[in-house]
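chain below, 343 aa
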Amino acid sequence: MIGLQLLLQTSALIQPLYLAPEPPRLRSARHILILEKPSGEPGDRGRSSEEALALSQRLLARLRAGEPFDAVAREHSQGPCAHLGGELGSFAPGMLPAELDRFLFEAEIGGLSGPLITRGTVHLLQRVETHAAVLQIVCAGSDDASLARARATLTDLRAGADFAGLAAERSEDEASRGRRGQLAIFERDRLEEPLKSAAFGARIGQVVGPIKTAVGYHLIKRVPRAELDERLAESRFVRLRAVLVSHVGAVGAAEDLTRTPGEALALATALRRRVSAGEALARVAARFNEDPGGKERGGDLGWVHRGNPALPGFLEEMFAVEIGFVSDPLWTSRGYVVVRREG
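prediction:
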């Protein structure tokens, strides 16, 4: 029984697996990364593990004294998100290394980790909010007149005008105007998009703007999540099901497998036709799937999150397609995969 449970939680295509009916909870973090540094040019002795740890402790003292995490990250982090103030994104349990994962799912919002050590690296984390609900007013266009309209509206808001009322009256975005300004419940990522970045930077009740985008000038107001329709909640999860067809030379292929790459592609193409004609992928996967545990799961890959550091490139397109879409056979190092979006 234990062996079967372990098998059902195993896949060579994506890890971890989230097979529950609803997506797993998320936690979000900012991150400062400090690398040990090998010696380079003559006279450069690099940075030892002890020196990396000592630097992290000095930075932690500054953070605990009240310095903004994003400012310290921009100055000192060696991670790829340093220029974004250390915005690391949102994660489900098990996506991050164990030390980081444990802190993130035990900490309160705003909590700071001590130095967390992984191979050759010291990390400092801060848990931050995962969602931000916002209203918006849009003044379409990039000309001076559009900016003037946005500034005039901002003046009225500062004088006490109701944001939702002005959105219904003045916003030039038809969809959100019809919802009295309700825009979205954003999910935190690396905050490279200006409206989302402004939303997470605002306090509840704060109005921010004008913010220029390709559409025009935006005014946004951050509000409690309960004030927005939950159907506006952004989700970066998709539910997927897949069948893997392996071949000689593929990673993980059975030693006695004789199927050539061409034969694998032909079989995967035939299986896709069957699914497109209406046969359940779960049934097809239960017979043909060569992903470990995949037959027993009927090919279920569960909930897949776009921010998963282990997300394989061949699954990227599934975030842009409609529910029910069935992919053409996708080449991977393990063979050909046919994927269906189910949620």
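The mean pLDDT is 90. The chain is about 30% helix and 25% strand.
thats it, cya
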